Amino acid sequence: MTEYQLRIYRIKPGTMAEFVEGWHKHIVPIREQLGFKVLYAFQHEQNSEFIWLLSYEGPEGFAAADAAYYSSPARKKMDWNPTPYTETTEIRILQGIPV
Predict the structure, then answer these.
(1) Which of 99, 98, 95, 97 is nearest to 6 (CA)?
(2) Which end of the chain, N or C, is less packed with Cβ atoms under 10 Å?
């Protein structure tokens, strides 16, 4: 079963371009190497928000795969940190509905 996670970050003023560059260069490749799919990424300029949707389909489930991502050697040695760019982070677990 495919599981989805929606992440909404409020980005500090004046740092969006730098954040997006770092996210694309560092976060996306590691996530994809570990079996995640980055489905969409959006910028809501008015609210200074960066929103992205990722999915995972595997027997261990999203939560276990997410924990493996954060404890992976690639993530630990990553020389870029998204935290200084973000004011808030909101994470939502979503379930797909057939259309």
Answers:
(1) 95
(2) C
d(Cα 58, Cα 97) in Å, to the nearest integer? 18
User: What would the pLDDT profile of 65-92 be if each residue is shown by its tens digit?
Assistant: 999 999 999 999 999 999 999 999 999 9
pLDDT by residue (tens digit) across 4-33?
A: 999 999 999 999 999 999 999 999 999 999
* Structure tokens belonging to residue 81: 């940190």
Q: How far apart are CA 59 and CA 51, in angstroms?
A: 26
Neighbour-count burial of 39, counting CB atoms closer than 10 A to its CB (0-12 exposed, 13-18 middle, 19+ buried): exposed
Token digits for 75? 């993530």
d(CA 56, CA 5) in angstroms, rounded, equals 9
CA proximity to 54, closest of 89, 15, 88, 27: 27
Q: Which segments of the chain are extended strands (E)?
A: 2-11, 36-44, 49-57, 86-94
